[in-house]
Every structure is written in structure tokens, then in C-alpha cells.
Amino acid sequence: MVQLPAADIRRAVRLGLEEDLGQGDVTTAALFPKPVPARADIIAQQPIVVAGLAAAVQTFLAVDPTLTLTVVRRDGEPARTGEPILSIAGDGRAILQAERVALNFLQHLSGIATLTHRFCRAIKGRSIDIMDTRKTLPGWRAIQKWAVALGGGVNHRMSLGDGMLIKDNHLALLNRGPQTVRAACRLAKAYKPGTMPVIVEAESLSEVRQALAGKADIILLDNMTPAMVRRAVSLIKGRAVIEVSGGITMKNVRAMAATGIDRISIGALTHSAPAVAFSLVMIRTGRQR
Fold it and tell me: Starting at the edge strand that comes first in sequence, how are the strands of the sheet with 164-166 ordered?
């Protein structure tokens, strides 16, 4: 079951409302000096995997705890074009004030979940994890990675402290000559032996050989073609978990998955997922009091 990052959602909702509503809503105040009974439906405008509904609900309730909310589609569930996912009833003024922030959560996070689902579906039948990266919006990492998990993906490192990943700039800084990758692996494995796997980025078959000599647990093949990945897989022969990353798209993910790798990490899941479309349709249900 996907864990809900409740504290991170509350913080994001608070900041979103401070940003949008911190100085009030002058338009609504000018038009509606008194409560206006209303009902609104949030409707999917395309096929999606829902994500961010918990944040949307918290947004509406933070503006007005007396609103009545009816959840039609839950986080992680699919929704078709034209289907409602959430209904809200109560003071129309509060609905207007929460609308933009709630929809921002839904559009962005459902976009991430939907794109992740597409990648997972593209490699269906293969035992390969589709993983995210740390390429996330500052302050939104937990909820963006939550959306990846809702779409069927697997979370990579949450921070620099919960996994060792030796990247190209680590290697450039270490600069131990032609055996830099091997030296980096050995230093990393000696730091906290047995506490976490050591992942090392390799951009060539020479670096793959060094990673194997350094006993890396996971070798990340970076920006390699499927043909080159196959050669690396043959070289590794099961001695390390094999991850690929860099330049993965819907056009090449199936070919990459067929090379014999174990996992694929895709930064685009969080940094480039297109927002999906929702509309909020509201009607007045009674006279202004």
C-alpha cells in the first residue's frame, strides 16, 4: 500500500493557501458579501491516474471546515474523461477561494502518476522497476514521489542520506586516475559496511569493469544505447543489480527493458510530467443568505 505523506501534504497546503489567499480574495469579497450555497464537481478532462486528491481535500477543508466533500475516485484509481472525482458542497465563496490551489495539486500530481503508469504499462510483463530520481521541486519531494508510487513506480533515494550513489561529479572530484571508479566503490563500501548498497554510475564498459572490481552492489548504466546496455549486461553476468538512466522515453523504454536489466530510473517522471486537465464546475443551490 502506498504510504500517504500526510505531514508533507499539510505543509504544502498551508504554503499554497498562504501564497494564494494570504491577502484575501478581493473578487469574491466584492461580489458575495454573504454566504452563497453551492455545489461543485471536479471533473477529469482526460484519462488519468488520480493523485493529489488528499491534498485537494485538505485544501478545501483548510479554507472552510464546514464544507461537505464526497470522494468519487481515490488516489491511485483511474478516471475516464468526463468522470467526477470529487464533489464539494457548502459556501460557494470558500469553494472559489480553494479552487486554484486544489486544482494545482491535482493537475500536477495526477500528471506524474499518469506518466508513471504509462511507463509501467509500456514494460508490462517484465520484472523491472520504474523508479524516480531526486529531480523534484524543492519542498515537494515527498508528495511528488507519492504520486510516482500511486502510478505504480518505485521510489529511489528520498535524500542524500539514505543511499550511496556515486555520480560523475563525485568521480571528477575524487580523480584517482584510470581506476577512479574502483577506488570510489571501495571507499564507499568501507564507510558504513553493510548498512546500505553502493550504487555507482558507469558511462562506459571500462567503468563497468571497475565497478565490478570495486564490488558495487548496483551499477547504474548512464546514457547508454540499448546495444551498449546489452554488452554491459553480458559483462556483469548477475554480479550486481543493473539500473539504467538517462534519455529514457516512451519510444525506447521497451527496448531498454528487453536488455536484461533490473530497474530503470527516469527523472522526467517528476521534472517533466505534463499536467493533466481538470475542470471545477459549480452551481448555485440556494439563495445568498
Answer: 129-131, 263-265, 241-245, 218-222, 198-202, 164-166
- Name the active-site residue from 91, 99, 129, 201: 201
In the residue annotation, 201 being an active-site residue is answered as yes
What superfamily in CATH does domain 163-266 come from?
Answer: Aldolase class I (3.20.20.70)
- pTM of model > 0.85: yes
For the chain, 289 residues long, give each residue's pLDDT as a single digit of tens. Answer: 789 999 999 999 999 999 999 999 999 999 999 999 999 999 999 999 999 999 999 999 999 999 999 999 999 999 999 999 999 999 999 999 999 999 999 999 999 999 999 999 999 999 999 999 999 999 999 999 999 999 999 999 999 998 999 999 999 999 989 999 999 999 999 998 888 999 999 999 999 999 999 999 999 999 999 999 999 999 999 999 999 999 999 999 999 999 999 999 999 999 999 999 999 999 999 776 6
SS3 82: coil
251 is catalytic: no
| Active-site residue identified among 20, 25, 64, 100 | 100
Topology alike, domains 6-120+274-284 and 163-266: no
Beta strands 278-284 and 37-44 are antiparallel
Active site residue 167: yes
CATH class of segment(s) 6-120+274-284: alpha beta
